[in-house]
Specification:
The longest helix is centred in the last third of the chain and has 18 residues, at 336-353. The protein is α/β, with parallel strands linked by helices. A hairpin with a 2-residue loop joins strand 9 and strand 10 (182-187). It has helices spanning 15-26, 59-73, 75-79, 96-111, 121-124, 149-162, 205-210, 275-285, 336-353; strands spanning 2-11, 31-35, 51-52, 90-95, 117-119, 135-141, 145-146, 166-169, 175-179, 182-187, 190-199, 219-227, 239-242, 248-252, 255-259, 303-309, 316-319, 326-330.
Length: 380
């Protein structure tokens, strides 16, 4: 049995774990990352729609984006690694019944420095064709767009390794117990001693926390993302969301990526693409996007994955109240890629300084559900 020691052990080598590892190493801490899969970004990170945006409805989420998006926009300039950032924008199509509340969110976004444009339907039609019959208008975020989650994760992995971060792949955590002022973790015949644990396991975070009797309210919900056959329109479609239904689309090369998140599904590791859900998405979206009637579907290139979802669709970032020196950074409910830069920084400050101070993550504490705080509305 071999024994390993580090200041911090991170469980999970997705984008949040990789960002956290680099930030911690930048503070001079020794870090080991344990990952059950054979490569980084094999879980929720690599199966997402890859969107990043400032168009959230809570101050906490907007502030996270206002830190994170400039990191992605300037990543290659700052660090010499491309993360595939493309500012294709997010275009939110708002019906009359949601317009007033949507404008309240825009006012909050702008007050925090977020660039958001308010468009009428004709202006929005420059970006993508849609039926504007019941729409009050649209908003467009020019900073919003997409990254390549694999490239971003592997950039942080490479940067972390340069600072001494050790990645142990194919190493699932099977047991964890408090040990002195820190922790002892086991993976088969390997033992890891550390001062702090960071739980960054995405959809698997609740299960990992349960190994030590901790209650982390995060579970897996399946997402299904579909890809069309090539289309003739040469415009690059923003990540466009119909707020009436939740149906979304964006360009993916000469194709269209599209989907609809099933927010009402039960937690569970359900697998595969379902033809019935594809039909539901097409039927739901065709009223807004009539050109979908002629849209060819590349089913073999479509994919599925999991979101790690919390009860209010916002993450847990902070010390778990049930144990010393255990930090949860999970439950992003589809927003982990958007907020990975800010989360990694917050995790490093929690470990090194005892609190996060650059970006306020207090809204993401574990006991928030009894407080009746702001709940994110733009969940997609």
């Amino acid at each position: 049995m071999s024994t390993n020691t580090a200041d911090v052990v991170i469980i999970g080598a997705g984008i949040v774990g990789a960002s956290s590892a680099w930030q911690l190493a930048s503070r001079g801490l020794s870090v080991i990352v344990l990952e059950k899969d054979v490569a980084p970004a094999m879980g929720s990170t690599g199966k997402s729609a890859a969107g990043v945006r400032v168009q959230f409805t809570t101050e906490a989420n907007i502030r996270m984006s206002m830190y994170s998006l400039p990191v992605y926009r300037e990543f290659e300039q700052r660090h010499g690694h491309s993360v595939g950032y493309q500012d294709i924008g997010y275009l939110l199509l708002a019906p009359h019944e949601k317009w007033d509340r949507h404008m309240e969110s825009v006012e909050l976004q702008r007050s925090l420095g977020a660039p958001v444009e308010v468009l009428d339907a004709d202006e929005a039609l420059r970006y993508v064709d849609f039926n504007a019959e019941d729409l009050a208008g649209a908003t467009y975020g020019p900073w919003d767009g997409v990254i390549d989650p694999h490239m971003a994760t592997h950039a942080w992995v490479a940067m972390g390794k340069e600072l001494g971060v050790e990645y142990r792949l194919g190493t699932p955590v099977t047991a964890a117990v408090p040990s002195g002022s820190g922790w002892e973790l086991r993976s088969e015949d390997e033992v890891f001693h550390c001062g702090h644990v960071v739980n960054a396991c995405g959809a698997w975070s609740g299960g990992v926390a349960s190994l030590v009797g901790l209650d982390v309210l995060v579970g897996p919900k399946r997402i299904q993302i579909f890809l069309s056959a090539p289309i003739q329109d040469t415009r690059t479609y923003p990540l466009t969301i119909d707020l009436s239904t939740g149906v979304y689309l964006r360009s993916e090369g000469d194709r269209v990526l599209f989907g609809l998140d099933d927010l009402e599904q039960e937690y569970g590791f359900t697998e595969g693409i379902e033809d019935s859900w594809l039909e539901h998405v097409l039927v739901t979206g065709v009223d807004r996007f009539p050109w979908w009637e002629d849209l060819g579907i590349d089913r073999k290139s479509s994919w599925w994955g999991y979101y790690g979802v919390s009860p209010d669709n916002s993450p847990f970032i902070g010390f778990n109240p049930g144990a010393d020196a255990w930090i949860d950074a999970c439950g992003f409910s589809g927003h982990g890629i958007s907020h990975a830069p800010a989360t990694g920084l917050a995790v490093s400050e929690l470990v090194a300084d005892g609190e996060a101070h650059t970006v306020d993550v207090s809204a993401y504490h574990h006991g928030r559900f009894a407080e009746g705080g702001a709940v994110e509305v733009n969940v997609f």
